Amino acid sequence: MSFAFIGLGPALAILCCASQFLAFVAAAQAQTYPARPINLVVAVQAGTAGDLVGRVLAESVGNKLGQRIVVENIVGAGGAIGAQRVARANPDGYTLGLFNNGVHAILPNMGTPLGFDPWTDLAPVTLLVETASVLIASPNLKANSQRELIAMAKAAPDKLNYASVAFGSPQHLAMEELKSQAGIEMMHVPYRGGAQATLAIAQSEVDVFWINVSVALPFIQSGKVRPLAVGSRERVSVLPDVPTVREQGLPDYEYTGLYTLFAPARTPDTVMATLSKAFAEGLADPKVVAILKQQGFTPHPSSAAEVTEMLRQENSRLAPIMKRIGMTTGTEAK
Asked: Relative to the CA of 226, which of 99, 217, 220, 235 has its CA 20 to 30 Å away?
């Protein structure tokens, strides 16, 4: 059987040289990054809060990098389809993803095969923004605050209802947590998207709905819906007269969205550093800051470790809520 090993030495040498060559090419490409346009996968619908963040930053950061950043909206399955696209892309920095916290805090707990692992197949570049949400009510609902909503729900259990964009969506879980802390019952009415749910509120088809401040503002300002509370720890500058949930008797409540930039795992460190620096500069651009703050966003660049810890905390916070409402608990944060 010794004949099987004849020529093994030269073969190993060739393989070693090939491996070194590929490593050299990868390093050279990383040093010249970016040399062509970058594709930014945004896993939410066009016109929504995350889409606005992606497009504002794509223009600013693209100018800083000297290459176009092309936004591609890939929606479906709670962000799983867009996230899978990024997880399976070449780790060269030319395919990035902008996802909300649901990809790490909700999807892994559902027990449904994703085709990728958010914790090991995606590498966080930086947190981009935190966004506040507002609980809006239909114009026909006789409640002017969260306190009054809770009082109405306690007086007539299951008579009130609330919208979400899907079963297991962040809006759904936010309302379930509010119900739990307030000790009330309300009926869940899922819609196919935020636009449909907001329109349903404005037309008094449903009573209340959690929605990003940026999307709700035009409806609030036109009087088509009524704000009852914001989910953040502090009041929102663009809605200064709307109290937080905490101010209205639920001191442990918080509902804040996170939008984070990801690259495929194993993207070279030099590329990750370039992206982190460019997006941090974009988030510090006065024009970008002004646009984001006008829409209720808080720019929040951070390290990869900080992002990971935030998402782990969100995962741990949402897992028991999901279990309580009957969603299958799967893999928690690693």
From this structure: 99
